[in-house]
Specification:
By secondary structure, the protein is α+β, with helices and mostly antiparallel strands. It is built from 15 helices and 21 strands. The chain has a seven-stranded mixed sheet with strand order 1-2-3-7-4-6-5, with helices on both faces. A six-stranded mixed sheet has the order 10-11-9-12-8-13. A hairpin with a 5-residue loop joins strand 18 and strand 19. Helix 7 packs across helix 9. The protein is globular.
Length: 592
Amino acid sequence: MTTDLHEHVDSGDGGSGDTAALDALAGLVSHTTTDHIPTLYAPSSGNEITAGLFFRVGRADETLATAGITHLVEHLALHRLGLSDLHYNGATANAYTLFHVTGSEEEVVEYLNSVCAGLRDLPMQRLETEKEILRTEAAGRGSGPQHRMPLWRYGARGYGLSSYNELGTWSLTPDEVRHWAETRFTRDNAVLWITGDHVPDGLDLSLPGGTRLPAPAATSALPTTPAYIGGDDGHVVLTSVIRRSTAGSVFADVLGRALFQDLRQEGGYSYSAEADYSPRDADFATLTAYADSLPHKQDAVVGGFVDTLARLRAGRIEQSELDSARAKLLKVYDSPDLAASALPSYALSLLLGHPILTPEQHRAELNAVTTDDLREVAREAWADALVQVPGRGLDWAGLTLAPQYSPTALTGTRHQSLEDDEVTLVIGAEGVSLLTPRGPVTVRYDACSAMTTRPDGARTLTGHDGFSVTVEPTLYRGVKPERIAALDAAVPPQAVVPMPAREPDHIPQPRKRDSAARSSGAKGSLWAWTTALWLVGLLAAVWGLLCAVITADEASAAAPEWDVVTGVWILELPLLFATWKVYAARRQRRRA
């Protein structure tokens, strides 16, 4: 059912707010509601039409323990379409889910009706099958050089979850999935767009009522920025969160052109050098810059990358650079299907609550951008930058290494590693810590994003800050079932993700201990010293006896002088000490 938007005000955050936002597009984009869902439409020149149904729910709304639940709902909702010849798909992003289709009016109506019917009554008999499909999809998906950046910036929550596997595909129940669909995939949390001069007849998009959900608040795992992390050879990646603005989108284009000019055309260091501006929520966008290199050129690429950004921050931006970027962005308005091509952007802005600009307003903002504006964006981007570099760090450029260890360690029962005497696992009342020579890694139970469990007793705890500790009973001394039971009782139930049993040969066993190698080396060293000191002692004894004989001959004395005897004993003391150390080391190894 379709009604005029001015005649219907949805419950929730849509309604009047949506009406005010869309009034600015009068004469360019038409708007109405379809079964209470705000609907935008504009004609296009093609014979087919394209439609998209946005929902304001995505990966960032999940927890690490339920990661994948939105993707799972998307797959289940599409199952009824089977082997249809329609050109359709679904997509789950950080802040939204999109169902889209291209075809005739009848095909578009069939698709949208089927999606909403699926959302109203998810085919739960397919749940386990779809879980397996999602795990298979993830296994075949490449991670890419930017994969770890969200984790380091946001931790194991919100926008950081895109760095993680979809753990929820192992443990989500039908009731959990059904509740997620009923509360997130609602008519008040959706926006529909269609490239046509009218809304097709026959649509049935009936969905439960709800509220328009705001985009998730951003978390942070970085105590300070700009910061850097180590990465794989051949890739330099920068991400920064900046305010959404027209100047920001222009800067991304200028930065991409500058990196290409400096690193490829002039330096010959990189093949790919580019930058991207992508909205994150209503107020902020993610700026991403990337350059590749061969291993022997990566230091030059890192240096050139930093130099390019330093030039832009200093305001050394040519007017021609700005003009080129601006001209590229203005070309969008030459499209004969301008309104239709802008529908997805308008619909997403409406969904997220971002102000919608008319083409005239956007043109005016583009033409008003100056090189000074770009300099300020460059400084804002650098102040929030997280850079992934291979090889050497970026301390020389004023960046701080992102935390590699936790600031504190917890107390509790101590369990020495069976592989390395310098590593100790601590299981305490407040959390777990892994003590290493370089620093501790700690996960507190009250800040645990997820704990995976195995029937063999293995546990992996991941904290909100992204740090993880794995408890393998086979790798630490004294990790008995009662210690695992105490750990299980302390972690919030909603964070627990049961995993399937492992094959016996997949359960890790202790490698040859590092301590054994060190003990072997120490043993060899001690015996070498002992042998040497015995030789010194024997030589000292011989020397002492010779001195005594000579003294006796010269003085016709009956006994050697006492200073000679004392010297011999002094030389023997190190020999006695080394022998004791060897004995003590043997006893310690027997106890181990």
